[in-house]
Design a protein that fits this description.
594 residues, alpha+beta, five-stranded antiparallel beta sheet, transmembrane helix, His_kinase_dom
Length: 594
């Protein structure tokens, strides 16, 4: 993961912008597509259900209208005078003339209504007459179930689908599956007595034509069940006989999904309040999924085209952003090679334009600084020349001190010789030909010379000891870093104590630095003052006038030259003494050649 992040961070800004733009677009499109497909799937399914139910209602209305029309025809037949007269006969057969008149009436209705295949009249006495229908056996038709059911519900018209097992036949060649029977009782309006029954056989062609004109999806179909669960009409389809009635819940309307022969089917139903039939629509789920698949395909095509266009636009717009940045990078490369006359020309005032203006301003400032440094270096060279000229006086002082030393030797004044020698070394090392760095050996010798001079004044008050390993002598240090600290130890530590004091100067290597320590057993420093001095040394507080400059001058010189990681730290205990610690980097001597 870390390697991948590193790889990503190292890519160009243009690459990152292109990836981010494409990622945002891709996430947006995929989210909208996924949400849209799911939403459309649900919406499409609901709409398909609503559309199917509307078709079922339409078919139901057409069938109900058709059946009601035939019920009216059956009612008109029962109201015909000749039919009423036949129904009122008791125990006698109608004459040939009466039969002829009834046959004429029935023929009129069958000719006007082609869907009527036959009409039979049966009175309560068992006598019957018919147009193109006859009794198969001599058994009385009064005992037929359809006749008895009509007697039990004289006010209703019964609809019998697939009339199998009747004692009735016809001269026309048709099966029970091609016929639908209507049975209606004839009631005496005066006595409300049931006089007989009118049986009417109807062709299924009209219902078939209604269903054939309805398409549910690409391969869906409709069929009808009666109130007993028997099929009234169904198209030629092996699926319909695999649908179990127990799958369909109670209720006037509903829908469900059921698996049949390894495929899911959407089943919707609606119950007719007119004839207690259940109209059922069946649609394969594949019809739904086919639409969803088409939508998914179109969505993928649109997504691909959108991503291609987005990639082109992203490349164009990122190019307009990156082009001035690359131009600025090229100018920076020239500046790195020393060509400071470069300038960035921007046509806009956006962030990149402002960055370019800052770049131009930076170059102007660099040129100004170069001019300032040139002037300062020129002045510095003039000052060095003046210093060289001023060195004539120190040389005269050295010569004079050598003369006094020679004269003291003549008179064997050893003390004077030692002090003059120490003073000579002090001046010589301190000047060091104008160099800022000297070997540790010379710095220690300078400090020793200073201590020899001080011992001539504080012989009974002061002892000192140097413990500097010889392997440190060859390293370079800033000159005059020990003497000011030794001076502080004498005047602020030893002089303030009672009795004779001692100062020790030691050094050692610690990692990549040289650590000098100047330790005295003098009066020490109070804790509050010690903390304040260390804060000034760390740069956390400004120096006040009450403190001298020697200690802080050494600290500032070290930190200005090598950084704040180096410098001075003071440790002290009141009444016990003080240790001043100098941390100086290890600097090897550079051999001059040529």
């Amino acid at each position: 993961m870390r390697a991948y992040l590193r790889w990503w961070h190292d890519r160009s800004i243009r690459f990152k912008l292109n990836c981010i733009f494409l990622l945002i677009i891709l996430i947006s499109i995929l989210t909208l597509s996924f949400w849209g497909i799911r939403t459309y799937s649900s919406y499409s399914e609901n709409q398909a259900d609503q559309s199917t139910l509307q078709m079922i209602h339409q078919v139901e209305s057409n069938v109900d209208y058709y059946i009601e029309h035939l019920k009216d025809v059956q009612h008109y037949i029962s109201q015909d005078p000749e039919v009423e007269k036949f129904m009122q006969m008791k125990g006698q057969e109608p004459s040939k003339d009466e039969v002829a008149r009834i046959d004429k009436t029935l023929s009129m209705y069958t000719e006007r209504n082609k869907e009527i295949m036959g009409i039979m009249l049966v009175n309560k006495s068992g006598a019957f007459t018919s147009h193109d229908m006859f009794r198969i056996t001599r058994d009385s038709l009064v005992e037929e179930s359809w006749f008895q059911d009509a007697l039990k519900a004289p006010n209703d018209t019964m609809i019998i689908s697939n009339p199998i097992g009747r004692n009735v036949s016809t001269s026309q060649n048709y099966s029970s599956y091609d016929v639908l029977s209507l049975v209606h009782a004839v009631v005496d309006p005066q006595t409300e007595e049931v006089l007989g029954v009118v049986l009417m056989d109807l062709r299924m062609d009209m219902i078939k034509s209604i269903f054939e004109n309805v398409k549910l999806g690409k391969s869906g179909f409709m069929y009808i069940l009666d109130h007993k669960g028997n099929i009234v009409y169904a198209p030629t389809n092996d699926i319909v006989y695999r649908i179990q009635s127990k799958w369909l819940p109670d209720g006037s309307q509903g829908s469900l999904t059921q698996q049949i022969k390894g495929h899911d089917y959407r089943i919707l139903f609606n119950d007719s309040a007119t004839n207690k039939w259940r109209f059922i629509g069946v649609i394969p789920n594949d019809d739904y999924q086919r639409v969803i698949t088409d939508i998914q395909l179109y969505t993928l095509i649109v997504t691909f085209i959108t991503i291609v266009l987005a990639s082109l636009l992203s490349a164009y717009f990122t190019g307009t952003l990156i082009r001035p940045i690359r131009k600025l990078m090229s100018l920076m490369s020239h500046v790195k090679n020393g060509e400071l006359n470069q300038r960035f020309v921007s046509e806009t005032n956006d962030e990149i334009g402002q960055l370019g203006n800052s770049f131009n301003h930076m170059l102007e400032e660099i040129n100004n600084l170069i001019n300032v440094v040139y002037v300062e270096q020129k002045k510095k060279r003039e000052a060095e020349l003046q210093v060289l000229q001023a060195q004539i006086k120190p040389h005269f002082l050295y010569n004079t001190l050598d003369t006094i030393q020679w004269m003291a030797q003549e008179y064997e004044a050893d003390d004077i010789i030692e002090v003059i020698g120490a003073l000579t070394n002090l001046f010589r090392i301190g000047l060091n030909r104008g160099n800022e760095w000297i070997p540790v050996r010379d710095e220690v010798k300078h400090a020793e010379s200073y201590m020899i001079i001080q011992m001539s004044r504080y012989m009974d008050k002061l002892d000192f000891k140097f413990d500097i390993p010889e392997h440190l002598y060859s390293y370079q240090v800033l000159k005059l870093i020990l003497q000011p600290l030794i001076e502080n130890a004498i005047y602020h530590g030893i002089k303030a104590r009672t009795g004779k004091g001692k100062i020790s100067i030691c050094a050692e290597l610690e990692s990549d630095l040289i650590c000098f320590r100047i330790t005295d057993d003098g009066a020490g420093i109070p804790p509050e003052k010690l903390e304040e001095i260390n804060q000034i040394l760390r740069g956390e507080k400004m120096r006040e006038d009450q403190y001298g400059i020697g200690l802080f001058n050494v600290n500032e010189r070290i930190q200005l030259t090598y950084g704040t990681a180096y410098g001075i730290q003071i440790y002290s205990a009141l009444g016990k003494g003080t240790t001043v610690e100098i941390k100086h980097p290890m600097v090897q001597a550079v051999k001059k050649t040529g």
